[in-house]
Recover the amino acids of this structure.
């Protein structure tokens, strides 16, 4: 059985910012108590800016193919 590697692509700034903000607000799908949305968004923006200035590239897999045949 040959398993093909899923193609990766660089994540956009928006995708990275949204993922970081979500991670700061939620744990196990439940919202943290005291998780301030504005502070999470500001923190995520600062992290994205820092990663970009530092030369990091964050990769993203495509969404899962739910209608796979074979």
């Amino acid at each position: 059985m040959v398993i093909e590697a899923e193609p990766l692509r660089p994540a956009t700034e928006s995708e990275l910012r949204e993922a970081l903000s979500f991670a700061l607000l939620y744990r196990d799908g439940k919202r943290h108590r005291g998780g301030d949305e504005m502070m999470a968004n500001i923190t995520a923006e600062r992290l994205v800016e820092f990663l970009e200035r530092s030369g990091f590239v964050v990769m993203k897999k495509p969404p899962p193919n739910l209608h796979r045949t074979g």
Observations:
- The chain has a mean pLDDT of 84.
- The first strand starts at residue 9 and ends at 10.
